[in-house]
Amino acid sequence: MEDPAYAHAQRRVDLGGGRKLNLYCIGSGAPVVVFEAGLGDDTSTWGLVQPAIAKRTTACAYDRAGIGFSDPATRPSSASNIVDDLHHLLKKAGVKGPYVLVGHSYGGLTSTLYASRYPKDVAAFVAVDPANERQVDAFREAFSNYEADLLAPALTRKQDCVRKAERGFGLDPAAGAGCVDKPDPRMGDALNAIHAQIHRQPAYQRAAFSEFESMRGGLSGSQLASEIGSFGSIPLIVLTRPKDTVPLGPNETAQSRAILWANWTTMHDKLAARSTRGENRQVAATGHYIQLDQPGAVIDAIDTVLDAVAVSNTPKPK
After folding, report:
1. Residues 122-149 pLDDT 10s
2. What angle do CA 262, 304, 292 make, to 5 degrees?
3. Pairing, β 11-14 against β 20-26
4. What percent of the chain has pLDDT over 90?
5. Where are the beta strands (DSSP E) in 156-269?
6. Of 117, 114, 27, which is closest to residue 64 (Cα–Cα)?
């Protein structure tokens, strides 16, 4: 995927006080499809899906605060703050709802909170292998000393990345190891180069740290748990990757993985069940990034909910 549109800022919308977020909308028509990326990811993660949807209706992706081409975050990157930013971004940009939300991973969790907080603004929802509000509970069950043995070391590593970025990584490519993502073969050379440049910036590392801390520390999950409710009858599709697409980590066992996988699939089923028109689709031959590994599955899910919205909005004969 080598779409030059994702290699530079598009429309930088002022949310107030001069703080701007990057918004990229293409296509025309309604309802508007709004894409929400995963942890630390930018608009380019939707590069194989957004243009296809734009052939049918308006498709908008954006960069969260501190990510991609948006201004640095001025507050923690918790789910609640992310939802607040997105709500104001769409209003300030004049992008009218109700929206079809499409959220991946952490973006699936924040999109779920958006749909819970602003139900009248949401016409349909596609959750792409989404994180959930009970995920940290599952980590604590799977690992008896989760906070001390897993969370604290991970946060220390990410804080080190912030400090390295503030000092400057220098010209040595190895200096960014563990902080700057390796080139993704699914992306082109230009996008990989832009990602490496952005990931070396202090604002990105601070935002990535805050998103990780908010998700893995449990804050974002608790915010969603306190607000989530029924989604009535909106078209809702959850997409779930196959089991064991990622090898066991150094701290994992078959038992801990089973606990985490049970949480993942059970919560996907529960999310789908929050709408009377919800379903959980299993997607074959993919990793966590279904939108990059199997973009057709995501496009098909979006088309399905758009069809359902169109039928619902069709006037019935008198």
Report:
1. 999 999 999 999 999 999 999 999 999 9
2. 60
3. antiparallel
4. 86
5. 236-240
6. 114
Structure tokens that stand for 133 in this block: 């509000």
Query: Which token pair is 97?
Result: 């709802």
User: Which is nearest to 303 in space by CA: 31, 27, 53?
Assistant: 53
Checking 219-222 for CB contacts under 8 A at 24+ apart, the result is 219/76, 219/78, 219/79, 220/78, 220/79, 220/80, 220/106, 220/109, 220/110, 221/79, 221/109, 221/131, 221/132, 221/133, 221/134, 221/135, 221/136, 221/137, 222/133
CA dist 251 and 248 (Å) reads 8
User: How is residue 153 written in tokens?
Assistant: 């070391």
- From CA 35, how far away is CA 100, in angstroms rounded? 9
Q: Hey, what domains does the chain have and what are their CATH numbers? A: 4-313 (3.40.50.1820)
Instruction: Assess contact for 125 and 239: CB atoms under 8 A.
Output: no
Phi-psi region of 245 (alpha: psi -120 to 50; beta: other; left: phi over 0): alpha
Give the amino acid at 28.
Answer: S
Which residue, chain included where needed, has tokens 């779920």? 112
Contacts by 107-110, CB closer than 8 A, 24 or more apart: 107/35, 107/36, 107/37, 107/38, 107/41, 108/36, 108/38, 109/79, 109/133, 109/215, 109/220, 109/221, 109/224, 110/36, 110/79, 110/82, 110/83, 110/86, 110/220
For the segment 171-191, the average pLDDT, to the nearest whole number, is 82
Q: H or E element: which one contains 122?
A: strand 122-128
Q: What pTM was computed for the model?
A: 0.95
Rounded to the nearest angstrom, the gap between the alpha carbon of residue 176 and the centroid of all alpha carbons in its chain is 24
Degrees to nearest 5, angle at CA 204 with 102 and 215 = 55
Residue 314, pLDDT > 70, answer no
- Backbone dihedral angles phi then psi of residue 116, each to the nearest 5 degrees: -75, -40
